[in-house]
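Lab notebook page, bench 4
Experiment: in silico fold of construct C2
Operator: M.H.
Input chain length: 377 residues
Purpose: comparison with the prior construct
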Amino acid sequence: MRSEPPPIRVPIKRSGRHNRGLLTPLSLLALLLFFGCQPDKAAAPQPLTPVEAAKVVFTDYLQVVSVSGEIRARIDSDLSFRVSGKVVDRLVDVGDHVAAGEVLARIDPKQQQADLAAAEAAVRSAEAQVRQSSSAFERQKSLLAQGFTTRSAYDNAEEALRTAQGSLNAAKAKLDSSRDTLSYSELKADAPGIVTARNIEVGQVVQIASTAFTVALDGPRDAVFNVYEGLVVNDLGAPQVQLAMLDAPSIASEGTVREVSPTVDDASGTVRVKVTVEKPRPEMTLGSVVVGTARLPAVNAAILPSSVLTSDNGKPAVWVIDPQTHAVTLRGVTVAAYESMNVVLRGGLKAGEQVVTSGAARLRPSQIVAVKGEAQL
């Protein structure tokens, strides 16, 4: 029989007046379990993000828009030579007024003159051939009547005459064309107007259809404006526009929107609007800078500080505060107009909602905020 091992005895050390026993493995395990089951300390609450906010209030907004533009002719005519050649004479410059049919420039006509001389010689030759063929035909006609020639010889003479007549007609057509080509060596104005651009110089070789001058034709005048896209999103109808000279506001006239461009300029992001100037003042010359003021139809919109706007994928948006949880949400809006300190919003918000006006740079969706000036629970 195997003898059982002796029991383990834990020695007790006595010191001074107090007794302190050594921990057994079981008591050590119990202590670890006791402390491990203790509840964690409560996490400290996160501080709220302070922001400033404004309440959305809708009102009838009567928008008055003033933009600067330029007086231009309704029709600009680009004039170019119809033949190529070297410029030998330029008779007008930018700012000159020209009459219909007035010569503006000339190119060297030597080539066209040579072509004209050749065409004239071809006509003379064709006329001589017609005379010769006509005499032969008349002779064959007389001989046939007397029975001294054959029908075949008569038919050949008639055919030769008709061929000569056709050659003469072709030569005359070529002569007319050569005369027209020679006239094309002079560039003439097709209508009265003012020269607004010049692209040629004496000695320059110009090509067919390359613009030499631009002439603003006399007649109706337009005030041309480049306005931001949001202004023309809705149909403008035909609103009246008050026009005044930029450097002399007392010189004024009225106008009516005539044309709104259907495309947006990629470089500036603006839309071109043309306004017909009714009874333009003499001082409103081409190129004059004018200020156009228009009153657009009233819209139901909210006027808020410009700082309320932020961007959501490149589109205007605002941070809206939930009244119950104080969590913020990014929401897209429609801008009706921009002012110096405010922005006019006509879509995307409801009356009574709160939007962040300051502190939006630190926000993210669903973040809890604290509105300055409001009591916090």
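Observations: The CA atoms of residues 35 and 41 lie 13 Å apart. The two ends are 79 Å apart (CA to CA).
Next step: discuss at group meeting.
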